[in-house]
């Protein structure tokens, strides 16, 4: 075999994992059918923005640990095939398996006449029962038998955008949904080479592994919406401050302090999609998911608190100069999928405000959507200059260095809406400072 593993689909998960496996000495074949994307990757110019990814790409390609192909039939050059294609949302929130189904069929056809035992590892996020469907399709199109000629393993991914390399190299846990001792051994031997000691592997069944991924993301999303709900209460009580509530409850080990930050809501390509998919999946089984429906409702309406403040402070927004700091769905990424900034800009445009935005790396992505209807600044100073209100939408580190006196000096009116609680309320009390969860 020419390679140890192949990754089918070089999106966020596929590319980050491929690069990290290669860096740990594994011979990796990356398969991507999108030529434009593949050409960028081959030139060590990653289509996703992640710290160190280009350096790692360059190093692994040079060391010949990472190679690429556009052809799915090349999966036969390895025995372990990771499926890392996308599972987008359908209109009703359920996941669309078209890319999984196509890749499965192509893999089945490719391995049909090859006398080798293949392990197909499902890393894409899929609802429980999908691995079973994949098994059936592999049998149908290859004529081979599950557990005898091939095995299917579910290995969900938990990396966070903006920290993908670090998360891939040092995962909190590796979940392996496995049906046979044979597959367990193959996967253990692979992961042992990558992570050496301290392997935090959780062995379970494929269906449980599929559900673990949704439970993980949905619980994190629930924590955020819960804190946004508490923030709404804190805003209505004298001296209320959600940060103080967070600090205290976060000390309880049963709760833990992470993912308790109230703000303008969660965005990105995972939480909204995965919560919706779990709701749709529950519906098929007649299971009530009001709990997750509320998580979405809170999230969908959370950004409106900005408009409550704007209405109170500025009245009509027509012609008012509003500046926005931060556009990406979270810091350290240029990803604007389901970003809260987009909702805010749309509504401000409806209200005919004059909008100027700045993000350290996501300006161009937002320009692709809003074009000339808004203006783009190349730094935070020029963004807030002359504005009548500044809204902090993403908590980029560099924004934390802006001083109260900078706002007073540059803005026409120093009205701040801190959507991510990045400033100290004490230091900002001389300004017109409003913040999520602050009464
Ligand atoms: C999330 C999960 O954290 C990963 O474990 C998972 O692998 C990934 O989805 C996925 O399924 O692919 P990601 O979407 O990259 O990762 O970003 P997060 O850091 O989880 O943040 C998601 C959103 O929640 C962001 O908009 C962030 O601003 C918001 N957030 C996060 C809060 O509003 N408050 C918090 O306390 C934490």
Tertiary shape: elongated
Total of helices: 17
Bound molecules: uridine-5'-diphosphate-glucuronic acid
- Counted up, domains total 2
- Point out poorly predicted stretches: none
Q: Which strands sit side by side, in order, in the main sheet?
A: 3-2-1-4-5-6
Protein described:
Helices cover 44% and strands 13% of the residues. The model has no long low-confidence stretch (mean pLDDT 97). The protein has a 6-stranded parallel beta sheet with strand order 3-2-1-4-5-6, with helices on both faces. A 6-stranded parallel beta sheet has the order 11-10-9-12-13-14. It has a two-stranded parallel ribbon with strand order 7-8. The protein has 439 residues and is α/β, with parallel strands linked by helices. The chain is elongated and about 75 Å long. Helix 1 packs across helix 3, helix 8 crosses helix 11 and helix 10 packs antiparallel against helix 11. The chain folds into 2 domains: 200 residues, 3-Layer(aba) Sandwich (Rossmann fold), CATH 3.40.50.720; 199 residues, NAD(P)-binding Rossmann-like Domain (Rossmann fold, 3-Layer(aba) Sandwich). The site of uridine-5'-diphosphate-glucuronic acid (UGA) has 20 residues, from helix 8.
Secondary structure topology:
Blueprint: E1 5-8, H1 12-23, E2 28-31, H2 35-42, H3 53-62, E3 66-69, E4 80-83, H4 98-111, E5 118-122, H5 130-142, E6 150-154, H6 164-169, E7 174-177, H7 181-195, E8 201-204, H8 206-236, H9 242-250, H10 271-284, H11 290-302, H12 304-314, E9 321-325, H13 340-350, E10 354-358, H14 363-370, E11 375-376, H15 380-384, E12 389-392, H16 397-400, H17 404-410, E13 415-418, E14 432-435
Parallel strand pairs: 1-2, 1-4, 2-3, 4-5, 5-6, 7-8, 9-10, 9-12, 10-11, 12-13, 13-14
Helix pairs in contact: 1-3, 4-5, 8-10, 8-11, 10-11
Bound molecules: uridine-5'-diphosphate-glucuronic acid (UGA).
The site of uridine-5'-diphosphate-glucuronic acid (UGA) has 20 residues, from α8.
């Amino acid at each position: 075999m020419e390679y140890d593993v192949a990754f089918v689909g070089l999106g966020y998960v596929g590319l980050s994992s491929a690069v990290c496996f290669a860096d740990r000495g594994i011979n990796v074949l990356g398969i991507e059918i999108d030529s434009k994307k593949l050409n960028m990757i081959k030139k060590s110019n990653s289509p996703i923005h992640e710290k160190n990814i280009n350096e790692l790409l360059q190093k692994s390609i040079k060391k010949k640990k990472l190679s690429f192909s556009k052809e799915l039939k090349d999966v036969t050059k390895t025995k372990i095939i990771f499926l890392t294609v996308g599972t987008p949302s359908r209109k009703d929130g359920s996941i669309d398996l078209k890319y999984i189904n196509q890749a499965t069929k192509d893999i089945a056809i490719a391995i049909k006449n090859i006398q080798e035992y293949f392990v197909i590892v499902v890393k894409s996020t899929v609802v429980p029962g999908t691995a079973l469907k994949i098994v059936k399709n592999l049998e149908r199109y290859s004529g081979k038998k599950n557990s005898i000629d091939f095995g299917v393993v579910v290995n969900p991914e938990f990396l966070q955008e903006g920290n993908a390399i670090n998360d891939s190299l040092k995962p909190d846990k590796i979940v392996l949904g496995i049906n046979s001792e044979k597959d367990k051994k193959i996967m253990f031997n692979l992961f042992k080479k990558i992570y050496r000691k301290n392997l935090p592997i959780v062995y379970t069944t494929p269906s449980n592994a599929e559900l673990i991924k949704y439970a993980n993301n949905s619980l994190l999303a629930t924590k955020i919406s819960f804190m946004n709900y508490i923030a709404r209460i804190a805003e209505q009580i004298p001296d209320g401050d959600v940060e103080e509530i967070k600090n205290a409850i976060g000390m309880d080990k049963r709760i833990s302090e992470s993912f308790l930050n109230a703000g303008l809501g969660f965005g990105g390509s995972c939480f909204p999609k995965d919560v919706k998919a779990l709701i749709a999946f529950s519906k098929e089984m007649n299971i009530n998911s009001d709990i997750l429906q509320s998580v979405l409702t809170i999230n969908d309406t959370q950004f409106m608190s900005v408009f409550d403040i704007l209405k109170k402070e500025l009245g009509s927004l027509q012609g008012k100069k509003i500046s926005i700091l931060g556009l990406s769905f979270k810091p350290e990424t240029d990803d604007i999928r389901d970003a809260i900034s987009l909702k805010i800009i749309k509504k401000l445009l409806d209200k005919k405000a004059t909008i100027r935005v700045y993000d350290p790396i996501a300006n161009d992505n937002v320009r692709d959507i809003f074009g000339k209807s808004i203006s783009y600044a190349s730094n935070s100073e020029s963004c807030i200059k002359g504005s009548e209100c500044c809204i902090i939408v993403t908590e980029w580190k560099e924004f934390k260095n802006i001083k109260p006196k900078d706002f007073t000096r540059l803005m026409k009116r120093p009205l701040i809406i801190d959507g991510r609680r990045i400033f100290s309320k004490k230091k900002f009390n001389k300004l017109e400072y409003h913040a999520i969860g602050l009464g």
